[in-house]
Amino acid sequence: MKLFSKILEQSFWQVLGKGVTSLSTFIILGLVARNYGQEGTGIFTLALTYLAIFYLLADFGFNAHLLKDARFEWQKLLGARILWSVILVILAIGLLPFLPFATPSFSQSIYFGSLAIIGSGIFVTCNLIFQSKLRYDLSVLALSIGTLTGLGVFALLIIQKLTVPLLLIGHLSGWIIIAATALFLVRKKIFPVFDFNYALKLFKDSWPIAATLALNVLYFRADAFIIAYFRPISDVGIYNVAYSVFQSALVFPTFIMNSYYPMMLKSLGGIKRVGLGLVGLALLGTLITLLFAPLIIRILTGGGFNGSVNSLQILSLGFPAYFLSSLLMWLLIAKNKYKLMLFVYMSGLIFNLILNLIFIPQYSYIAASWVTVISEYLILAMQVMLIWGRR
Questions:
Q1: Distance of alpha carbon 243 from the chain centroid
Q2: Scanning 40, 71, 221, 388, which has its CA 20 to 30 A from the CA of 31?
Q3: DSSP per-residue codes, 67-97
Q4: With the C-alpha atoms ordered 373, 374, 380, 383, is the resulting torsion angle positive or negative?
Q5: What is the pLDDT at residue 292?
Q6: Within 13 A of 308's CA, how many CA atoms are on the CB side?
Q7: Backbone CA torsion sign across 253, 258, 263, 268
Q8: Which of 83, 33, 59, 29 is nearest to 258 (CA)?
Q9: pLDDT on residue 6
Q10: What is the pTM of this model?
Q11: pLDDT at 20
Q12: Could you give the CA distance from residue 150 to residue 158 in angstroms, rounded to a whole number?
């Protein structure tokens, strides 16, 4: 009971924070959909999807690796992450001329929003302290303050009827406040120490985790970029509206595992109960989504996004696989099976890309939705075989 009470306590804070951020995200998405239509929504959400890849790369698996060592050097980690985040900002902008879907509006959006990568990197670094002390209430506080600030800026920008790229200023302002608040709440020496040898060792030790997480995001969201290449940008808007709702539900296994992972490192005693709880929660989520998807999309967009309803209902069929694979991924990390995990997600990415390239040109976001679901069940099957097949 003590295990579950601790998981529930820490998950509660994360769910509360996600409630704030999801509500803010949906308000922003609704405002964009109503004021800029399917095409504007497509550009806006595609830019955020692109930046999200770099937010994950900014993490680079450092936290998961260092959490095993209570003596981690936080200031050196902060210095390493800031340097890496700056490199990622340059990379995010530098890649734009080579992207086939990089329209002028998309590129301008990245110019305005790319510095948010640094803010995200700083916040993730602070989260190592919060997670190690099981103080997700502090993480949620920083995230909520910054998110609400960003929402206010977004609202002002939309009222002024500025172009879609300029809306990313609101996104950037939110991340600046999140990072500053998190640094304040850490209550440690917040000045970074730039130790290149330390940074190189971190990269050497953590790269399999980073590669796995990056592959996970690519196979999650490569479909949006493939749609942008083969189909009208309005199709991207339709798909990303559905995916935004779908993705909001996926935070539940993430929150549970954030709370359970430090305990998993000490004992695997409660893993079966956690797994059953995740599956039960996933099935409930699928049922609710199938029934209420039309209402959710109508409330969110105000109408005109009927394709998003079909896409969301299909995506919800993948909840059981996503919820359970989250547990098994962290089990592989806890057992230091980094390369096995990398193999699983590389295989999933290749499978996902092949199917999307075959079917998206003809079936657009409907194909992307089905491929997303099928790919995750493949990932889950491989995880099960690798974990239990090696016993």
A1: 12
A2: 221
A3: TT-TT--HHHHHHHHHHHHHHHHHHHHHTGG
A4: negative
A5: 93
A6: 30
A7: positive
A8: 59
A9: 55
A10: 0.73
A11: 74
A12: 12
The three-point CA angle 29-32-33 to 5° equals 85
Dump strand ranges (E) for 25-162: none
Contacts of 339 (CB under 8 A, 6+ apart): 208
What are the tokens at 43? 């550009």
Count of beta carbons in the 10 Å neighbourhood of residue 188: 12
Neighbours of 303 (CB within 10 A): 11
Tokens read off for 185: 């709440």
Nearest to 175 by CA among 153, 129, 143, 152: 143
Please name which of 239, 229, 230 lies closest in space to residue 106, comparing C-alpha atoms. Answer: 229
Query: Which of the residues in the chain have pLDDT under 50?
Result: none
The CA distance from 298 to 295, in Å, is: 5
The structural domains of the chain, with segments of one domain joined by +, span: 2-389
Nearest CA to 113 out of 186, 176, 21 is that of 176
* Per-residue pLDDT, 53: 84
d(CA 37, CA 40): 5
